[in-house]
Amino acid sequence: MNELSDGLPPEAETLLQSTRTIRDVARRAGVSIGTASKALNASGRLSAETRARVLRVAGEIGYRPNDLAHSLHRARSMTVGILSNDSFGRFTFPIVEALERSLSDSGIAVFMCNATDDPERERRHIDQLLGKRIDGLVVTARRTDRRAPIEPAVGGVPVVYVFTHVERPDALCLLPDDQGGAQLAVRHLAALGRKRIAHVTGPERFEAVRLRASGYRAALAEFGLSARAGDYCPGRWSEAWGREAVRDLFSKRRGAPDAIFCGSDQIARGAVDA
After folding, report:
1. pLDDT by residue (tens digit) across 237-246?
2. Sign of the C-alpha dihedral, residues 7, 13, 19, 25?
3. Which residue from 54, 96, 98, 131 has the fewest beta carbons nearer than 10 Å?
4. Are 268 and 262 in contact (CB under 8 A)?
5. Would 75-174 and 178-273 be classified into the same CATH topology?
6. What is the distance between the terminal CA atoms of the chain, rounded to a whole angstrom?
7. 3-state DSSP call for residue 240?
8. Architecture label for domain 10-65
9. 246 near 274, Cβ under 8 Å?
10. Any bridge partners for residue 84, and if so which?
11. What percent of the chain has pLDDT over 90?
């Protein structure tokens, strides 16, 4: 405790700390507001003793900078918005974690909103993020399929698309190489000497499924192989489909494959079980 808060209950002390200003710091440290500002912002020419005294006083009284005032002064909010429709978080959470890790070193915070494939909810989230004067927006999803561009709704705010993309020649879209990844996987299996490589994957309405199937067939052709009838198995994104497809592939009706390339971790787990 100090003379500004002696005898106050904890909840009042917390409220008082949240309202302390740079004037309180300057008065207690015995310096001008300008000097206190230089010390707190590590700017200007001050003696080491004065700077240390101001920082010590700020810590003692629980002073916190007014980020809103600072953002108005520098015309930057030091915040980035993330707009997602990945309600499961399987793909968005790693993206958010990487963004926070990269941006925090620059003092930039992240606001995340989940639109859950609801256009009206997405519009509300965009309005809320713009109301916070975000410096940029990251748009992500749980699938890489094309979506409507968001730029018309955000004015001049920079936008980056991650794990989704739009039909704009100037858009920055970061996507996995589904076709190339599939080719690498099938080349590996073929290089091991496998001759009948099956592909168990998800619904063909997903662009990633179509691209992986293209990579699968291209890699087979490189080794003089081809997918026989029934070796290509599109279905559902589920362990159950992985089990069902593998049981069918290994049924007595057809010769069993000697390798399986799966379109997702869930499908692969079901395939291994079967």
Report:
1. 999 999 999 9
2. positive
3. 131
4. yes
5. yes
6. 66
7. helix
8. Orthogonal Bundle (1.10)
9. yes
10. 114
11. 47
**Does the pLDDT value for residue 189 go beyond 70?**
yes
158 touches 136 (CB < 8 A): yes
DSSP one-letter string for 16-70: HHHH--HHHHHHHHTS-HHHHHHHHTT-S---HHHHHHHHHHHHHHT----HHHH
Tell me the domain boundaries of the chain. Answer: 10-65, 75-174, 178-273
What is the tens place of the pLDDT at every residue in 220-237? 999 999 888 889 999 999
- How do strand 172-174 and strand 79-84 relate by DSSP bridges? unpaired
HEC sequence for 162-212: ECCECCCCCCEEECCCHHHHHHHHHHHHHHCCCCCEEEEECCCCCHHHHHH
Give whichever of 4-8, 81-85, 153-157, 203-207 has the largest mean pLDDT: 203-207
Q: How many CB atoms lie within 10 A of CB 200?
A: 28
- What count of Cα atoms within 13 Å lies in the side-chain half-sphere of residue 193? 0
Q: Would you say the pTM of this structure is higher than 0.70?
A: no
* Closest to 176 measured CA to CA, from 161, 191, 186, 194: 161
**Does the 75-174 domain belong in CATH 2.60.120.10?**
no
Using DSSP, state whether 84 is helix, strand or coil.
strand
